Amino acid sequence: MTTDEHARMMRANEANWDARTPVHLASRFYGLSENLDPSRWFASWEWEDLGELTDRDVLHLQCHLGTETLAFAQRGARAVGLDISEASVTAARDIAAKAGLDVTYVRANVYDAVEALEQRRFDVVYTGKGALCYLPDLERWAETIAQLLLPGGLLFVVEFHPLLNSLGPKPAPGDTGELLLRHDYLGTRGAVHRDATFTYTDGPAVAGATESFEWMHGMDEAVNALIGAGLTIRRLRESDELPWPRWPRMERTESGWWRLPEPRVPLLYGLLASR
User: I need a surface site. Which of 103, 154, 195, 235 has the fewest CB within 10 A?
Assistant: First the structure.
């Protein structure tokens, strides 16, 4: 697939995320009308791996509404969020202002981040939880990350495990919600085209641009792309918990997150790398 075709698909994704934004702003899923608690989107092991953030420059790529970006500012970081959607960035700025937090938001495609951020470099780059699937080329992504990091800087990717994306409910009337392996664990070649009127949150149908494209990436693809860009892999974690119940049969844990009953399987992974 050519670069022009990828660019066209990413423009479709940009329009789709613009259309999703008002639905997400009003959703119970994000709960922005309630007490804002950005830390609820983070597992305890994420803070262990990230370490002290006070007075550090932290960039959150593909930040959407900035609900996680705010947590970095709360921990004393100079936080910057970047997203492809103008509607999302506008909403994120408003959310941060209402929360009284100083966060800079920039609208740009990830691949244009170096230019959009005027060659600024960061101590930490954070991304994940449903971000990498909207990028067609992880080698180009990794090269961009390397340019965004200061020497010794950290990249932390916290992303849905490929196994999670392979699981699906049994497609039969009156079933028990049993999850089966229905999709390729290692992903498929090329883009997955979607045309959906509803998003992963509650709320009404998306008005307007409903078309989007995703690319499935295995952990090996992410790891090898980062190694190829000159980064050093520091740690890899697999977690059996998610910050929300993706399926009805999930059970709440002591952490407040959710996991499947036995047998437990990895649903999230954390990849820490350094430049």
Answer: 195
3-state per-residue secondary structure call for 105-169: EEECCHHHHHHHCCCCCEEEEEEECCCHHHCCCHHHHHHHHHHHEEEEEEEEEEEECHHHHHEEE
The token duo for 264 is: 């437990």
Q: Could you tell me whether strands 167-169 and 149-160 are parallel, antiparallel, or unpaired per DSSP bridges?
A: unpaired
What is the pLDDT at residue 139?
97
How far is residue 160's CA from residue 167's CA, in Å, rounded to a whole number? 12
Tell me whether the omega of the peptide bond preceding residue 245 falls within 30 degrees of 0, making it cis. no
97 φ, ψ to 5°? -65, -40
Q: For 23-66, what is each residue's pLDDT tens digit? A: 999 888 888 877 788 999 999 999 999 999 999 999 999 999 99
| pLDDT attached to residue 164 | 84
Rounded to an integer, what distance in angstroms lies between the CA atom of residue 160 and that of residue 127? 11
Four-residue CA torsion sign, 148, 191, 88, 161: negative
Q: Given pLDDT bands bounded at 50, 70 and 90, which one contains residue 169?
A: low
